[in-house]
Amino acid sequence: MLQVKDTFFTYNNTFTLQGISFNVKAGEHLSIIGESGSGKSTLLKLLYGEFDLNHGEIYWKGAQVLGPKFNLIVGYEFMKYVSQEFDLEPFISVAENIGNFLSNMYPDKKQLRINELLEVVELTDFSKIKVQYLSGGQKQRVALARAIAKQPEVLLLDEPFSNIDNFKKQSLRRNLFKYLKAQHISCIVATHDKNDVLPYADKMIVLHKGKMIAKNSPQQLYKQPEKALIASFFEEFNVFKLSEISHLKPNTSEIIIYANEVRITKKSVLIAKVFKSHFMGDCYLIEATFKGRSIFINHPNAIIESQDVFFSISDELIQFRTL
Ligand code: ADP
Ligand code: MG
Q1: On the chain, which terminus has fewer CB atoms closer than 10 Å, C or N?
Q2: What spacing in Å lies between the alpha carbon of 178 and ligand 2's midpoint?
Q3: For residue range 17-39, what is the model confidence (pLDDT) as tens digits?
């Protein structure tokens, strides 16, 4: 198990990570999410032992992960880290880049392993191409293959699919995360893409200005987002005063309701004026004015501008979210 205990870290007195604690079991998948600059990359670097902590401790299987003050060479064999800048060797082929991370003892076995890794990152057809001729996304995939080549116990990934186009992204992350689960490799993934998180992560932490503001399963944080910042990571959402939408709970505290939880109905006490219909593929996102502000509603069809619509939110949902 990876144990992160009350860690603090400061870059030249400017930015600080504060009081970060969490555990990751063998084979578990943890996502780190947060806005740009919230400290995701810094946290991954701390886990890798790239910096010395100001306070706190990090352990893997009971042994302490230490920074450069205590280790001449940064990094550990059991852990691999794919940073946002993947440094590959440009003048040799994709297969050679991966092969350089493998033992030469059994050439046949080595070739089989290279082939297997090329399949995981979907680069089989590019194995003989020199890395300098690859696109950014293809380079990112070579970096991933190299990181898993020697079966690490822990894999740290910093926005691993950020350079990879949508055509490839879906199948690549499915392949990679399935492979890591099957091999029982723990992975910690910094990302700002909910599609990296919702179907795959066992747990997630949310960073905001260097502090951890939430830690739970993606399901729990999706269903009960305690802060607007958490909801905004997942979907378009609204913040209503309870008194605006429910007679059952006539108080002024606020409730988060996703656009996909608001229904347009034939009759309701809630009325909004449509401002714009945005085509989203699987639905239209209706932007409407309610009590002088914009609200968002998912709807199967577009609605013409300036039309008044009735909308409702189920009492059950309001009860559940205000538990
Ligand atoms: P994220 O990955 O969530 O975008 P980072 O961990 O890269 O965030 O950065 C967190 C904060 O630390 C930012 O304000 C960034 O400017 C600052 N920072 C990052 N690296 C350094 C550094 N080497 N020296 C000083 N400040 C840094
Ligand atoms: Mg980053």
Answers
A1: C
A2: 24
A3: 999 999 999 999 999 999 999 99
